[in-house]
Design brief:
single chain, alpha+beta, 6-stranded mixed sheet, about 25% helix, metal-binding
Length: about 260
């Protein structure tokens, strides 16, 4: 594949409820790879045929009513590498899928929210982040061009939220969440959106409540982390913000990175 490879991530918040919006976005923006989170469907309910009509081939890891992740590729079948994270065999949540596509290792993640905190859900979030850290270390050791993208459910800095005091009690902004995120970064991964927006002020999520979208009360929790082998190929990154304002939209906007093809 020549030119530019565009890898996008979209927490669709229910693939059946948002399918028209998702197909619309795919047609309008045409990412090379689209990583989806919160598909909220069992494997057999995944609408692969609808994507095939647009030329996208897919792999997915579903779960009834909750979670669920998928990777779509334009004209190429993603080669599945791994689904789920090691280290907690009793964890049945569908939150991780990894594939090789267009010469790039692509991992799609839906990190636990962690609320309410403190409590078992927050403890699970931190354990999951430790398991992700171990997997990302293993990927880094392979020295392959890689992107780990999706809904991290972490607001990395105060620049990434409309009002730090308003979100201070939330699991997304706890020191433990942020520390775990920066442990990932310290292994040499690059936060693509932060690289191109060092002053912050870029949101990827706006709650359905309290007029958050209309008031632009958002925050950044959807990220794309690039391995050193891929960071050098980063051309651009952005958020498809307008898609959040459409009828029956997800509460997230898609994020994307544009990469030079090898």
């Amino acid at each position: 594949m020549s030119g530019i490879i565009k890898v996008a991530s979209f927490n669709i918040n229910g693939i059946k409820a948002r399918l028209p919006r998702l197909l619309e976005w795919l047609e309008e923006t045409r990412p090379s790879v689209a990583c989806l989170q919160e598909i909220k469907t069992q494997d057999e309910g995944f609408p692969a045929a609808d994507f095939e009509k647009l030329g996208y081939k897919a792999i997915w890891h579903g779960q009834k009513g909750f979670n669920g992740v998928a990777i779509l590729a334009d004209g190429e079948q993603p080669e599945e590498i791994q689904r789920g994270l090691e280290g907690e065999p009793e964890d049945e949540h569908s939150r991780y899928i990894e594939a090789q596509v267009f010469g790039i290792r692509v991992a799609c993640i839906y990190l636990p929210n962690g609320n309410p905190q403190p409590g078992p859900k927050f403890d699970y979030k931190l354990r999951w982040m430790d398991r992700l850290h171990a997997r990302m270390k293993a990927i880094a050791a392979e020295e392959v061009p890689a992107v780990v993208t999706g809904d991290y459910n972490v607001i990395p800095t105060d620049r990434d939220v409309w009002s730090p005091p308003a979100m201070a009690p939330d699991a997304l902004m706890q020191p433990g969440s942020r520390d775990a995120y920066y442990r990932l970064m310290h292994d040499g991964w690059t936060d693509a959106l932060a690289t191109h927006n060092p002053r912050g002020g870029v949101w990827t999520f706006w709650d359905y409540q309290a007029g958050a979208w209309q008031r632009d009360h958002g925050f950044r929790i959807d990220h794309a982390l690039l391995s050193p082998e891929l960071a050098d190929r980063l051309v651009a990154s952005g958020v498809d913000k307008a898609h959040r304002g459409r009828e029956k939209a997800s509460d997230h906007a898609p994020v994307w990175v544009a990469l030079r093809a090898a």
